[in-house]
Amino acid sequence: MTQQFVAMHMSDGIINAPTSVIFGVLAVAALGFCGWRARSELDERTVPLAGLVAAFIFAVQMVNFPILPGVSGHLLGGALAAILVGPFTGALCVSIVLVVQSLLFADGGITALGTNITNMSLIGVAAGYATAAITYTFTKQLGASAFVAAVIGTVAAAMGFVIEYAIGGASSASLAAVAGYMFGTHVLIGVGEGVITALTVVAVARARPDLVYLLRNSRKEALA
Amino acid sequence: MTMNAAGRGKTFWIGFLVIIVLIAGGVSYLASSSPDGLDSATLQGCEVIEVDGTEVLTGSCIAQHADDHALAASPLADYAIVGKDGTGGLAGVIGVIVTLAIAGGLFWLIARRRSDT
Fold it and tell me: Distance from CA of residue A92 to its chain's centroid?
């Protein structure tokens, strides 16, 4: 069997078919919900930023950075998108990237779209945004909050894969070994993700603070 | 809005787009070609050896269960244009345009639906 090293996401066959179907249904339902809730995050002023954030995540995901000898990592983008454009719109941004990568660039299996979306869009965004909102409320430090949120979001997304592997992994590799390896590598990837996320979010906030969802939202809460 | 603020606004959008295109079209050539954390996890227990120009997995690992992509023969598969070396940057820029079009279109529709209600 050939192995392509330019691929970035889970291939078909790693997680068995019934488990893939379950996560596919879950992903479709969750994205429908996100589309409904994204109405409260999107207006004519923020639509261009949301579109560019999706394109930015696509571009930056192409740039794998080394984390260990022979192992690399790349941005997942969940925390970045959620902080800039809101969690529901952010989950849609990451999902659009994953669909384009799978259908246009043959990167990430088609039946694995449900599991890949669950991990990187749903879990990555939820964990990343929750961490960012809590950290920012207490520290008021946007860059530091973005960094911590990205680390937590990345590790949480990796643990999503571990859960799917535990339920329907089509192989005999030990769960503990897979969990340990995924955790260790994704802490390192999370540091890279954290640096990229903090730099990007702070750059946008310096130029257009009025557009950054986390800043708008915390101001709204302060006024309420 | 003053002309000055409008001008600054435009600079932000154009600057953001230029950075995205430069990353996809240029910086992407500097990317590490090592497997990422997930791929590397699926390769634990296997060794990759080259047989007749194709990479083959020996040993026992999760990646042996991976199927070839159903669209592996598509014209942009693996971020190259019809498999040609050195076209990754152009493939990346195409991906940026497609992603921007789909995301922008979807988000515009969602925002419009909101103002209708």
Answer: 10
B46-63: per-residue pLDDT in tens? 988 888 877 888 888 999
How far apart, in Å, are the Cα atoms of A203 and each of A154, A199, A219?
A: 21, 6, 19
Residue A99 phi, psi dihedral angles, 5° rounding: -70, -45
| CA A30-A148-A206 angle, 5° bins | 95
Q: State the DSSP code for B115.
A: H
ipTM of the predicted assembly exceeds 0.90: yes
CA B88 to CA B25: how far, in whole Å?
Answer: 7
Which residues pair with residue B36 across a beta bridge?
A: A72
Quote the CA–CA distance of A96 and A106 in Å, as a whole number: 14
What's the CA gap between A25 and B108, in Å, rounded? 25
With a CB-CB cutoff of 8 Å, which residues 70-109 of chain A face chain B?
A: 70-74, 89, 92-93, 96-97, 100-107, 109
Question: Token digits for A19?
Answer: 């488990």
Residues 6+ positions from B46 with CB-CB distance below 8 Å: B57, B58, B59, B60, B61, B63, B64
Is A1 an interface residue toward B (CB < 8 Å)?
Answer: yes
Q: Are the beta carbons of A196 and A80 closer than 8 angstroms?
A: yes
CB contact under 8 A, A97 and B57: no
pTM above 0.90, yes or no: yes
Nearest-10 Cα torsion for A80, B98, A20, A10? -70
Tokens of A59: 């571009």
Phi then psi for residue A112, to 5 deg, are -90, 0
User: How many of the other CB atoms lie within 10 Å of CB of A222?
Assistant: 8
